[in-house]
Amino acid sequence: xxxxxxxxxxxxxxxxxxxxxxxxxxxxxxxxxxxxxxxxxxxxxxxxxxxxxxxxxxxxxxxxxxxxxxxxx
Length: 73
Fold this sequence. Notes:
- By secondary structure, the protein is α+β, with helices and mostly antiparallel strands.
- The protein contains three helices and two strands; from the N terminus they run H-H-H-E-E.
């Protein structure tokens, strides 16, 4: 999957989710529609984190997975 498209899909899924999502869960959700792999998903998350560097939100890794949240600053 094209990197920006995958990044957008992950962002939308995380924004819509009520709970943090693991890479495994993201993989299951995304691969039900398109082919990708867990490495690409982690790379897209890393790129999202870089995109959010200068914004008031961030991708946070918690025990149960990833979520989008307001920065604590």
